[in-house]
Amino acid sequence: LIIFEVMLAYNCLCWFLKDVVLRLFFRQVWVLGKQRVPKSGGIIFVANHHNQFVDPVILTTHSPRPFRVLCAAKSMRRAIIGHFAAAMRAIPVERPQDLAFTGKGSVTVERDSAALVGVGTQFKEQLAAGAKIVMDDAAFVVESVIGDCEAVLAAPAQTGVVRSEFKIFPKVSQADLYKSVYESLSTEQSIGIFPEGGSHDRMGQLLPLKPGVAIMALGAMKDAGVQELWIQPCGLTYFHPHKFRSEVILEYGEPLKVDPSLAVMYANPATKRDAVEKLLGDVESAMLATMIPAGSLEEFQAILIARAMIKSSQDISQEDLTQTMRQFSRILSEHGKEADVHKLLSQLDAYNRALKASGQRDADVRLAPKKHDMLSATLLLRTVSVCLVLFWIWLPAAVLFLPVSVICRGLAKREQKKALASSTVKVKAKDVVASYKILVALVLVPVYNVILSIAVWFAWGRLVGGLGWIFIPVLWILLPSVEYACLLAGDRYVAAVRAVSAYLWSFKSGCRYLVQWRSEIVVMVQQVLRDYSDAVDSFDQDDRAEATKSTPLLEPREHASNTVTNVEEAFASQVSQKEVQQIMASVAKRTSKMRGRRSRSAEGRCSTPHAQPVRRMATEGVIRS
Fold this sequence. Notes:
Blueprint: H1 2-25, E1 26-32, E2 42-47, H2 54-62, E3 68-72, H3 73-76, H4 79-87, E4 91-93, E5 101-102, E6 106-109, E7 115-119, H5 123-126, E8 132-135, E9 138-147, E10 150-153, E11 161-164, E12 167-169, H6 175-186, E13 190-193, H7 212-223, E14 229-239, E15 246-252, E16 256-257, H8 260-267, H9 272-288, H10 297-313, H11 318-335, H12 339-358, H13 362-367, H14 374-400, H15 402-421, H16 433-459, H17 471-505, H18 509-532, H19 541-550, H20 564-574, H21 577-601
Parallel strand pairs: 1-15, 2-13, 2-14, 3-4, 3-13
Antiparallel strand pairs: 5-12, 6-7, 6-11, 7-10, 8-9, 8-12, 9-10, 14-15, 14-16
Helix pairs in contact: 1-2, 6-7, 7-8, 7-9, 8-9, 10-11, 10-12, 10-18, 12-18, 12-21, 14-17, 15-16, 16-17, 18-20
């Protein structure tokens, strides 16, 4: 009976999170490769971590097999998150960094010495064997404590530190954690883990993996007698992860079966480290195979623009589109210094900057009509009529829920600043924004609905006499359905407004050349994919042949006759001087605003030699970086 109640609560919570929370926040959640998940044996689900509390919710609610996710004990001690995590049967993980504190006094360590000397310290009370001391970018592990002002380090110090303040990271026993993991895997259940150790906003990149996932897998086979164990890689690709009504792709890769010979190596102290490193390397490769990797933020933006162009230029399924973009990413990674690939990167970067400077989006260029004839005018009138009808649904809903939107955004921004200040790996800390928008909304929206129900009762409920109080619970139950209908109507209204805006913008002289420029870049993207598809190994030969048969992967719908150079010259020479001045002023304003942010985040951003930010602008006469 207890098991039945637990599973009933688990299933109900999964339904609420999947069909209510995620459906409201995301416009679309694509799930690919679900058939690859093994149907038997213990499984360790591993995934990249780009969206703090949203990642485990997406993984748990869309998995074909239920599993228990590993969650930081610090998060489980929080009010709302802790209750949700407990209901989802999460396994708490106590991390030393979550228990770190500043030690009393100051310490001195001489170079090539293992003696730790303190002044005004309380080593006996605050330190223990195995604890870590961090100071001045140096870290030391304590082997033993002799007195309040004297301790012995596990190894001689490589650098000396004199009378420095220090932080203490206590040693944490993970015996309960491994016990819970082994019990789950030995009964052919599943667990989920994020091997990077924490969330970050380096889209398309993996942080160095922690060895815990390999230790758990090999320890389960060695100590718990697990015979069949799989590691299932999962890739989460977000498109604007911090924004409301965005999209996300969850892809299950090829499962990795843990080799029993590695468990034998793990049992031998001499080869234990080798076994862990071997399995960890295989896990990292399997995870990267489910992602769209990028060496930098600029490269990831170029991949997203190329994805939008390929998607709009041909009929292609979401799975094939994802595979194509992964192949395109490999081309940029392995052949980024080739002349044609580097030119394509420059064109994508220049096109993206031109869009930002003109205040338009790639979708506006795609939606702009190529001809202003009767057909396009008829479509415009129909779209305008849709806008007028939906406007009277969207406007009251937008005004009514403006306070909720402002509060959610404000609190999420505050949490973003805190996360950025306390992290050394985050670029802008956008990985926490969506989580806190959802958390605040989960509390605020029901309370706000109660306030609205009481307001309606005060306005009209008293007119019907003594039963007017019934308005409050009835409205509180009906309001979510009305709000969801308004949300869908709002999506249609925004799409219609963008279509009308694109049509009106198409009358400007600069629009024609951006449309032509975009067509040329589409051809360039397809040409690069055609030329380098056999030079990268993102597809097996059979998979590549099957994908080529199933979809016209590289055949464009539209053909452009002019070269890219001609389009750039036309764009530079025929756009009016007034529009040139407006674009130049917009670029200057955006550049001055972004310069401070880029200088602050440049240190933490990873990049590869071939993927440095492209600064050369293709339209020299119009736009300058």
